[in-house]
Amino acid sequence: MDTALPTVGHAIWRWLEFEGLNAERLFAAHGLSKEELQSQSKRIPSDTWDGIMTDASGGFANTCAGLSAAQCWHPSDLGAMGYAWLASSTLGTAFRRMERYFAVVGERTSVTLKDAGQGLQVSITQNRSDPMLRAFGADFSMSILLDMCRVNYHSPLYPAEVTLQRERPNCASEYTKFYQCEVYFESDEDSFTLAAADVDRLLPTSNRQLAGVHDQILTQQLAALHKDDIAARCKVIILENLTTGEISTEGVARELHMSSRTLTRRLEAQGTQLQKILDETRCELAERYFADPANSVSEVAFLLGFSQQSSLTRASKRWFGMPPLKYRSERATESPSLS
Asked: 153 and 297 share a domain?
């Protein structure tokens, strides 16, 4: 069963009220109060949100109502994903983060990225068969996503192109006004494309430390959401214990309440090993830590759980083909892409 964060309901609630509907009554009809939207630990069935949307659809004054959702969101509505987005160094990094972790926000909708001739194409895919729900869902999600981009960008930002699966509505001009570009209706997918220069531009809201913290939270939430993904659960344990330098099959298996043999067998079934997950995690974190000049090489070695700096040097040569200081020097001339 697909689920979503309760806090997403805050954005839906504000949106319904913005459109002149009684959000409290609509939510209550599906067994939800505003207080129940505060929880960060429970999940709400996606069918509940779809039911509220279905009941509300008859009260919308026009079929362009989904566009107004851009005025009704707050970063906290998306939990750690919202704050990780704000701390991302570029829009490209933000969208790669969202593509990876969007299931934490809601499982019925996903974000997929594709390099297009004009730049980066961001597509919204929904597990909804009802055309009305799919149309409102696309408008709701895409309008919020574009406004999130504009908040981070701190300058006028317009897509190069927008495609929508929905039929061309009577209020089509409202879409052109909102997106400020050509909008193609009755298309194969719901998407917008951002120019490469806009996607790669360094953002003023960038904060590597905050992005890293929220990534760890999102990894933990994703692992909890997909409990059968043993590799993801191992990565959470690694992140929690990395600085101790005491990562072992026996220790991880103990925290997962299984034998070492069972853990090894289940990881092999997923085509991986604990040492490989540990190495990939260290490499991913090393890229982020080296990008911050405030972190010395010895500090990075400690953060990655190496007992000696020489161990980090050997690992850096294996990961990046060069020692830490040279890698940091070369990265300093490039645009940040990992925070």
From this structure: no
How confident is the model over 270-285, as pLDDT tens digits? 999 999 999 999 998 8
Please count the residues of the chain. Answer: 339
Do 191 and 290 sit in the same domain of this protein? Answer: no
Tokens of 84: 């990780």
In a domain, 61, yes or no: yes
Spatial contact of 120 and 199, defined as CB atoms under 8 Å apart: yes
C-alpha neighbours within 13 Å on the C-beta side of residue 112: 10
Position 331, amino acid: R
Which tokens sit at 50?
């779809």
Entry pTM:
0.75
Q: Which helix (H) or strand (E) holds 123?
A: strand 119-126
Is there a single domain that holds both residue 232 and residue 176? no
Strands 119-126 and 109-116: antiparallel
Residue type, 186: E
Domain hosting residue 129, numbered range: 3-200
- What's residue 176's pLDDT? 96
Strand blocks (E) in 272-334: none
The alpha carbon torsion through 124, 130, 135, 141 (nearest 10 deg) reads -40
